[in-house]
DNA sequence: GCCAACGTTGGC
DNA sequence: GCCAACGTTGGC
């Protein structure tokens, strides 16, 4: 396993958990991911990996801040909590289904980078970039070093 | 609030 | 293993 720093993008609905919330709490367990592809990406994350914090389902969806991976993947406790909206009756402590990572606040962007602006750079970012791929709803995705640099140059 | 796109579930 | 039904995501 390489120890080179990698990059990711993680979506959150700001009414649920925003970059300001992350700034306030410092570090947050990324609960609630219930998609296997997204989960598998989290399992690949290493401490110190860069995270683009994306606001979805909001007036101006886009990238609003930067975080970093503070703890590698471990079972998401909400899958065991009956009262949680993330409860999964098929998950057991012996065989958990869902993992999460801890994300630590790094900084807010000087200005948000709106999705429609990101779309304008599709050529440079690549058609395969899940964020701008038609119909893609993936909430955790890898970002290449080149994409990371390109996106932050729009700040 | 609408709805297209997608993922999951469950009957067969 | 197929696929219709259903639930969710997330832009608009």
Commentary on this structure:
The chain is an alpha+beta fold and 155 residues long. It has one domain: ph1033 like domains (ph1033 like fold), CATH 3.10.590. The protein has helices at residues 19-25, 36-44, 115-119, 122-125, 145-152; strands spanning 7-12, 27-29, 50-55, 62-75, 99-114, 140-143. A 6-stranded mixed beta sheet has the order 2-5-4-3-1-6. Strand 3 (50-55) and strand 4 (62-75) form a beta hairpin.
Amino-to-carboxy terminus distance: 32 Å
Which strand order spans the largest sheet, edge to edge or round the barrel? Answer: 2-5-4-3-1-6
How would you sum up the global shape? Answer: globular
Which fold name fills CATH's third level, the topology? ph1033 like fold
The unreliable regions are none
The description of the largest β-sheet is: 6 strands, mixed
Query: Helical stretch count?
Result: 5
Number of strands: 6
| Fourth-level CATH superfamily | ph1033 like domains
Strand content: 25-35%
Proportion in helices: 10-25%
- Compute the gyration radius: what is it? 15 Å
Mean pLDDT: 94
InterPro entries: 5hmC_binding, EVE_domain, PUA-like_sf, THYN1-like_EVE
Domain EVE: 6-153
Pfam family, one: EVE
Protein name: EVE domain-containing protein
């Amino acid at each position: 396993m390489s120890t080179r720093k990698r990059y990711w993008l993680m979506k959150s609905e700001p009414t649920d958990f925003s970059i300001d919330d992350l700034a306030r709490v410092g570090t947050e367990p990324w609960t609630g991911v219930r998609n296997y592809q997204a989960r598998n990406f989290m399992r690949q994350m290493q401490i110190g990996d860069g995270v683009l914090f994306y606001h979805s389902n909001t007036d101006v969806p886009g990238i609003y801040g930067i975080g970093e991976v503070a703890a590698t993947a471990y079972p998401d406790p909400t899958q065991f909590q009956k009262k949680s909206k993330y409860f999964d009756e098929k998950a057991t402590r012996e065989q958990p289904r869902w993992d999460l990572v801890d994300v630590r606040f790094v900084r807010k962007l000087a200005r948000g980078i709106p999705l429609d602006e990101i779309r304008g750079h599709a050529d440079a970012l690549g058609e395969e970039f899940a964020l701008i791929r038609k119909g893609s709803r993936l909430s955790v995705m890898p970002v290449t070093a080149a994409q990371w640099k390109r996106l932050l140059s729009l700040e």
